[in-house]
Amino acid sequence: MDRDTELGLVERLRQGDTDAFDAAYEAFSPRLFTFLLRLSRRRDVAEDLLEETWLRFVKHARRLRPDTRLGPWLFTVARHLHVSFNRSRVLEDSAAESLMGLWPFAVERASPFESVAANELERRIERALAAMPLASREVLLLVGVAGLDHSDAADVLGVTPEALRQRLHRARAVLSRALDRDGTAPAPSAGGITPCPSR
Amino acid sequence: MSEPLIALLSELPAARLDPARAARIRTRCRARLARLAPDAPASSAKTVHLWQPAITVLGVAYLIAAFVQAFSVSSKF
Fold it and tell me: Which residue of A36, A149, A159, B50 has the fewest CB atoms within a 10 Å radius of its CB?
């Protein structure tokens, strides 16, 4: 969507135009849902967060600034909702991983995308993304998958562009290492159980 | 590493939302937007229109009363 179209859409949304809402929904909903699903790794959660994102959007539609950029606005709300969800469930990735480490076996859960990935490379990327720490995953999802430019992604994450570049660099390194590992080691079957490495 | 990796990510398939759920979200949001849309500015403008003449009338009445009072006091001397 070019900037002029977006500005026109924002103006119509400020007037409560429901057709403008439809246009925004068509333009951003698939990317938002993809982002939320890869972030949460749960379809039911992603659907609920997507609905809440759009409800917040229409609630604020009349108060949008005329120069609002819809993409960053929507992704920021979606991300905040996911952070709140994680806090409420006390299911931050790090906490979950450390808890799982207490058990003698770790469960490899397939991401929602993994089972439908068209080829082996896609499956490996999905597996690596799903296993990444949340902070790394979200920056890769925003820049790589959702296609936000660096400055918009920095706005969504609430960091400076320089901090975003560093975070992106680290995330790419993590993903690259995971892909290398996955490419050389035999891939665990989706949903299978693998023993924890001995300490 | 780097850009080829980002290019790979950009080619990953998009998720597809259940059509029934998508339609429900759209309907709910449209209804809410339509409900929020009606004439909030118009009603505040109407309030301004009502209060402005009332304040003017009260102000004029106060000034007239003040002049009448002043004349009545000055005519005694």
Answer: B50
The per-residue DSSP string of A158-191 comes to: TS-HHHHHHHHHHHHHHHHHHHHHHHHSPPPPTT
**Does A16 contact B14 at a Cβ distance shorter than 8 Å?**
no
Q: Name the closest residue on chain B to residue A46, using Cα atoms.
A: B17
Domain interval for residue B54: 3-76
How does pLDDT run across B53-75, given as a tens digit for each residue? 889 999 999 999 999 999 888 88
- Predicted TM-score of the model (pTM): 0.70
Q: Which residue of B has its CA nearest to A129?
A: B9
Q: Which residues of A105-125 are buried (b: 16+ CB within 10 A; e: fewer)?
A: eeebebbbbbeebeeeebbbb
Tell me, yes or no, if B60 comes closer than 8 A to chain A by beta carbon.
no
Total structural domains within chain B: 1
Å between A193 CA and nearest CA of chain B: 26
What are A106-123's pLDDT values in tens digits? 444 566 666 666 678 888
Domain annotation for chain A: domains and CATH numbers: 3-89 (1.10.1740.10), 93-195 (1.10.10.10)
